[in-house]
Amino acid sequence: MKKLLASLALAAAVFAPGAWAQDAASAPAAAASVAAVAAAPDAASAPAAAAASAPAEAASAAAPAPVPNKGDTTWMMLSTLLVIMMTVPGLALFYGGLVRSKNMLSVLMQVMVTFSLIVVLWVLYGYSFAFTEGNAFIGGTDRLFMKGIWDNVAGTFSNAATFSKGVVIPEIVFAAFQATFAGITACLIVGAFAERIKFSAVLAFMTIWFTFSYLPIAHMVWFWMGPDAYTAAGVVDEMNGKAGLIWQWGALDFAGGTVVHINAAVAGLVGAYMVGKRVGYGREAFTPHSLTLTMVGASLLWVGWFGFNAGSALEANGFAALAFINTFVATAAAVLAWSVGEALHKGKASMLGAASGAVAGLVAITPAAGNVGVGGALVIGVVAGFACLWGVSGLKKLLGADDSLDVFGVHGVGGIIGALLTGVFNSPALGGPSAVGDWVTASMIAPDAYSIASQVWTQAKAVGVTIVWSAVVSVIAYKVVDMTIGLRVSEEEEREGLDISSHGETAYHK
User: Fold this and answer.
1) Against a cut of 0.85, is the pTM above it?
2) Which conformational region is residue 280 in: left (phi greater than 0), alpha (psi within -120 to 50 degrees), or beta?
3) Which one of 127, 325, 442, 467 is least enclosed by Cβ atoms within 10 Å?
């Protein structure tokens, strides 16, 4: 079990809850504890990272090898299915309803095919570079083509660690769960340049961006050696040194505030600038053709997000339950906040606003799901509702980009808000679960030792690195694609609609 899967609990505190103790073995906590031991902030390894990282290798030689619990395995398989539902059909319908009818199928195709592309790349090399031991920025080649998942010597499947010592799940399940995260992250970007980009350009860009932005960020935030690797104080520094850079800092990210939302949002914003504005933008109305479908898509996203967030605990335990209720509460609070803000600003609350508010709440609670108390989740939801409403109105005008479906306004703003507030509400003084301060004993950081200022600064550094990394990779990727196959369709094809010009079919027949 040399395989050191990474920890997806980017917030040591985030998963700290799940990471501590038995049921707390989630990533955030894990990260935090390690950091404390190492005198570093504490790293919130992503929920998944911890799981795959230090299976049972560090367990005492005399102890029997841990066996996956059927309940944990079932929960993780169900969570994986829920995240697939989030993407296809959830995100596809949410985005599809927001574009004009002549571009409906093009968006559905871009989401579905992009998701499929990323899953294949994940199996070929993505999983290995994200969740195996390499260096502080990228993993190694131990799991290329998923080799080693079946242990020929033992005659059984390899296991991945969770955030509890001595608790494992089948590594193949962990790999599948993480594949869905990579897939939906790439699909989120589609909304920024919808209605004017070449289908082939989408796939070419996604391949480059996934390889050079998603994989390194996922490794930096979520990869660590797992709880069982911390057998004694003397190995702490060595184990910490093998983790991803941002995990070593102690940043908390329970389910992907940086890796998923900020990462994708920055790529989308860069794309909105580099692909250019839609023909007629600012002069013609770009009214959503079916808010009914958008509402259905948002609802599917909300339901599927329980697998996204609660599944990131990697176990069916109390921290999964905490992430579950926080996902429920923060989203509801954001719907109300956005609706109130819209009513105050425009005089009426809209269905589009309510659906957008739901997504804003889901985005913001993602890094905090298992790292904050219910009270903190409520505050995060309210703040996200109002902040993202400004993001799609005031900030969008300031940026001057044609971000078609407000990817940055919702996922960028919401992701940043959630990442920073995770550092605030992870504090025990504010109802948070704190984080593991010592992975050797799996003990938590004492309430009087938790520093909100220090953790928020760590969160801010993680956000900054993600923004810069994704922006640089995105600029290069878009430029390469533009110089080879071109980014956008002709004006004539754009006016005709991408459904017909790119795919030769229409969503609706009159």
Assistant:
1) yes
2) left
3) 325
Rounded Cα gap, residues 378 and 361, in angstroms: 9
* Element (DSSP H or E) covering residue 274: helix 263-275
Closest alpha carbon to 406 in 367, 336, 359, 369: 359
For residues 235 and 440, give the distance between their C-alpha atoms in angstroms, rounded to a whole number.
Answer: 9
Nearest to 465 by CA among 416, 403, 423: 416
CA angle 375, 380, 384 (to 5 degrees): 155
Q: How many CA atoms lie within 13 A of 159 on its CB side?
A: 22
Whether the link from the prior residue into 89 is cis, omega within 30° of 0, is yes
* Contact predicate 446/392, CB 8 Å: no
Distant-in-sequence, close-in-space partners of 333: CB < 8 Å, separation ≥ 6: 361, 377, 378, 380, 381, 382, 385
What's the start-to-end Cα distance of the chain, in Å? 59
Residue 112's alpha-carbon distances to 99, 157, 267, in angstroms, are: 16, 30, 19
Tokens of 31: 């990260």
Find the length of the chain.
510
d(CA 58, CA 228): 5
Tokens linked to 124:
């070929």
Tell me what pLDDT residue 63 has. Answer: 66
At CA 475, angle to CA 474 and CA 477, rounded to 5?
60
Locate all alpha helices (DSSP H) within 66-223, ordered by sequence.
70-85, 92-98, 104-121, 127-131, 171-189, 199-209, 215-222
Residue 155 confidence (pLDDT): 80
Task: Give the pLDDT score at 440.
Answer: 87
Contact 127, 120 (CB under 8 A): no
What pLDDT does 282 receive?
A: 86
- DSSP summary character for residue 488: B
- What is the reported pLDDT for 11? 34
Q: What is the mean pLDDT, run by run of 10 residues, along the chain of 510 residues? A: 35 33 33 33 38 42 78 98 97 97 97 98 98 96 93 85 93 97 98 97 98 98 94 92 95 96 98 96 91 97 97 96 98 98 95 97 98 97 98 95 96 98 96 88 86 96 98 98 96 95 90
Rg over CA atoms, the chain? 21
Report the DSSP pairing between strands 436-438 and 156-157: unpaired
State residue 436 phi and psi, 5-degree precision: -70, 130
- Position 438 scores a pLDDT of 82
What pLDDT sits at residue 62? 53
Cβ neighbours for 417, distance < 8 A, ≥ 6 positions apart: 364, 380, 383, 384, 387, 388
Are the C-beta atoms of residues 188 and 260 closer than 8 Å to each other?
yes
